[in-house]
Every structure is written in C-alpha cells, then in structure tokens.
Amino acid sequence: MVLQLQTILLTLLLLVHFQAPDPVPARKNQAFGKGETLTFNVSYFFINAAEAKMVISDDIHRVNGKPAYKIDVYGKTLNIFKLFYVKDNWGTYIDTARIVPYRSYRHIEEGNYRKHEVIDFDQEDGKAEVKLYDRENEKLVKTEKFDVPNQVQDIVSGYYLLRTMDFQGLRKGDEISIKGFFDEKNYNLKLIYEGKDDVSTSLGDFDTHVFSPVMPSNKLFRGKKPIKMWITADENRIPVKIKASMVVGSINMDIVSAEGLRNN
C-alpha cells in the first residue's frame, strides 16, 4: 500500500504538469503570472488522501541573467494516509517570455526514501546537467550531462506551456506529441484531445477542454486511456479536475482554491 500510494501521487504530479507544448517558440502568455496559487484535494476511494499546491512566486527571479518565473508544486499525504508519508516539492524556473525551463529541482520525501535533484538546462546547446545530492541535501554526490531535444520541458514547466496554447483549433481525437526530460531520460509522450465538457467544482461551474495521455501498459492503471484531465476553457486555463482509473479503485483530484489568477 505504501508503494502504491507513492506511485499514485507521483504519477498525478507528472500528469498534471508534464503537458503538451506546441511547436511555436514565441509565446503570448495571457493565462498566468506571478503570485498565482492553485490548491487541489486528492481523494482515493472517496477518502481525502492528499493535498497538492501549484505556486508561482510573487517575485521574478533571474537565472544566468534571464528573467524567470519560479514555480513550485507541493504534495503531501493527509489524515490516515500520513501513515504512508509523502511530502514532495517539485519546482522549475521558466523563462518569462519563451516558457522554457532553465532549472528544475525535486525534493522527495516518501516513507524512508529521499531524493534531492537539480537540473540545469542549456536550451541553446541542447544539454541538461543533472546534480544529485545526499539524503540531507547538503553534499553533491553526482553530476552528469545529457543531450536533450530543442525546447525540452520538465515535468512542471510543460503544464504552464500548455496554458499558453490556443485550444480552439483542436478537434476531438487530435493527437499532440510532447518532448520532455525526466529521470535522466528523454521522453516523447502523446495526449489525445477528448473535446469539451461542463464541470462542476467547489469554485463553480466551468466549460473545459478534456485531455487524455496515452499510457503504456502497466499494472497500476486500468484501460488504454485511464486518465482524464479537465482544463478550463477560459483565459486562465487551469486544471479543475483529474480522474485516474486504477486497477483497484480510482483517484480523483479536484480544485478547491484558486488565488492570484491573472484573469478574474
């Protein structure tokens, strides 16, 4: 149960934030800005299992002299699920204009497992330098460089790039390919556009676009398209609901708070 819960939460974070960019390098971002915080409730078998937050810093940071948004994703178990203990922080620094990552990081605490990682991306030369730190996140223990594709995304930055896209041209069944770097590997994943849907949440009713990632065969999820994500069709383009069909039961992730939205 411990490993299953950890895998569920990790996969949800990947699917929420590691989403599809279009091929256009110049971005007109009208969907988000500094100071935004989105909070989600994660339930398993109708039990509140975890809380997730997506937070954009109030300040514009600089990486190698370039302005960047600092974005953090936090996940932690709640209530009886604290017995299985998950407390994770995933983060990225993305260029404010190009919406590509310059640096990403993971600080993972899951049961007795710990992982501290920082990745520096050289978007011009197509390189990623991965630095791993010790259990206490004090000493550098390994550095390695990898080749990455043009305009590569990390698991957090990709979702924010998705929010700059124009969904109006998509038709049901359209397939979107994405390129990303995670766990020292390059990935080419696919999303299927499922059309539009009306969704009711604790924040109100929303007209949404629905996406399903194409998942490889595995023992955790049920079916070929076991996960669906609903993203608002307004200017903010925030995720308001995610549903994952598991081999045993299902996971639901629902928005409960949205603060500092760029468009009110």
Keywords:
264 residues, 2 helices, 14 strands, disordered N terminus
Explain how this protein is built.
- The protein is mainly β and 264 residues long.
- Helix content is 8%, strand content 53%.
- It has helices at residues 2-17, 157-162, and strands spanning 37-44, 47-63, 66-77, 86-95, 101-110, 113-122, 127-133, 140-147, 175-182, 185-201, 204-213, 227-232, 239-245, 250-259.
- The protein has a 14-stranded antiparallel β-sheet with strand order 8-7-6-5-4-3-2-1-14-13-12-11-10-9, covered by helices on one side.
- A hairpin with a 2-residue loop joins strand 2 (47-63) and strand 3 (66-77).
- It is globular and about 45 Å long.
- The N and C termini lie far apart (41 Å).
- Residues 1-10 and 14-24 have low confidence and may be disordered.
Give me the count of strands: 14
SSE string, helix = H, strand = E? HEEEEEEEEHEEEEEE
Q: Could you give the order of strands across the largest sheet? A: 8-7-6-5-4-3-2-1-14-13-12-11-10-9
The radius of gyration is 18 Å
| N/C terminus separation | 41 Å
Indicate the proportion of strand residues: over 45%
Task: Return residue spans where pLDDT drops below 50 for at least 5 consecutive residues.
Answer: 1-10, 14-24
Class per helix and strand makeup: mainly beta
Q: Outline, from the CA principal axes?
A: globular
- How many helix segments? 2
Largest sheet: 14 strands, antiparallel
Average pLDDT across residues?
83
Helix content: under 10%
